[in-house]
Amino acid sequence: MITRPTPSRRLLLQLLVAAQVLYVLGVAAAGYATTAYGQHIWLATSPVELHQLQYGDFVRLRYVAATVPLAAWHAGGTPQRRQGVYVLFAPGADSLATVAGVYASEPRPAAGQAVLRGFVQEVYNNSLELRYNLERYYVPGDSPLRRAKTGPPLRVRVSIAPWGQARIERVRALGK
Amino acid sequence: MSRKFLETDSPAWVAEGLITEAQREALLARYPPEAVQAVGLLPLLGSILVGLSALSVLAANWQNLPAGLRLGLLVGSIVAAYAGGEYFVRRGNRSVGHGLLALGLVFFGAGIILTSQLYQLVGYDVSGLLAWVVAGVLLSFLYESPTLTLLPIVIGAAVQTYCTQALGSFSYATAGLVVLGCGGRWWRRPDALVGTVLALGLLWQAGLWVLVSHSKITWFFVPAMLVYAAGDWHPNARGGRALQGPPLVAAYLFALGLALFGETDQYAGLLRPPVWAYLGALGAVLAASVAGKRARGRLATLPDWLLLLPGFYLPGGLALAVATLVVLYAHAGSVLARAHRAGDAEQLTLGTVLFVVATMVAYFKLTWVFLDKSLFFLIGGVLLLSLSWYLRRRNAQRLAAALGSNKQ
Question: Name one Pfam family in it (chain A) (predicted).
Answer without folding.
Answer: GDYXXLXY
